[in-house]
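[09:14] KT: can someone run the structure on this one? pasting the chain below
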Amino acid sequence: MPAEWEPHQATWLAWPHYRDDWPGKCKPIPWVYAEIIRYLSRHERVELIVADVTSERRARKSLDRANAFNDNVRFHRWPTNRVWTRDSGCTFVKCGAGALARENQEGHDFSRAKQTFGGIGASAPEGLTAIKWRFNAWAKYSNYQYDEKIGSLMAKATRTPELRPLHGKQRVVLEGGSIDVNGQGTLLTTEECLLSKVQQRNPGMTRQDYANIFQDYLGISNVVWLGSGIAGDDTHGHVDDLTRFVAPDTIVTAVESDPNDSNYEPLRENIRRLRAATTQDGKPLAIVELPMPASVIFDRRRLPASYANFYIANGVVLVPVFNDPNDRYALDILADLFPDREVIGIYCGDLVWGFGTIHCMTQQQPL
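[09:31] RB: done, structure tokens below
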């Protein structure tokens, strides 16, 4: 699985239409999307999923009014339940014959992957492969039947071979927001998301089972397990609100300065784990601390506001901001880490009412 900062062919998004994701705050959401698409489409193609012809008409009108409609935006009329393409979409990986041969030479058991390789096996052409995880709405919601098909539709639209990971005879449930990679063989995830019995994705799967799946399907040789995610996270522990790779040996991780905040101790524990962790080569990680914004609360509920939910695209890094004094510190930190990209703050105080922001809604398609 390539790192997010590696060159993209496109970014996938789904246009918002499900009003219950933002009850009482739905009106500004299309304009947040339009702003994000305006920046992305300057640097790469945007593959925009719309529910139907009416949704496409509304999206075109909004994008045109926001000066965001151009030839780099391409529409796909597929029904969706929600817009969180990071989690419902497929994970694109580089998986050619050379990669498979290397795995076999090193003595790894690749049989789990071959079960679902559709006859391609070691003769697969060089290029992309779509890893189609099973999606079950974070083991929490019942309306996900359309979203479960999105990854396969993405694979078909890109003419990309599709792999469906199995554990035994069961398809593996995984969301893209639960993992982050450095493109060199190391992956970040959390115990709260993958090993907890709350919102349990894959009953019976162990830490080693996940390591095997990550090795076979994502080329991962080193898994760094963090503990808990941030307060207010509807997904129960996604790492993309918490800790992210910004270079092969460098991560940014959220920290909370207020000892009375419920995030204070969990984030301190994650820092301790990161200090003990290494890259796939056994080298220590360089750790950059990223502040948390003050609590964002709406309708008496804490929301998962975090600067770590940024998205790295060609030539630009889009960062959620919240009209908070720490906004400028977070933007400065990320600007220093990405000197060759524009670092743009996108106001997400309304968007986060849907329990996600910029990284949650995007899915990269590598070159």
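[09:33] KT: thanks! The chain has one domain: 8-366.
[09:34] RB: yep, looked fine to me
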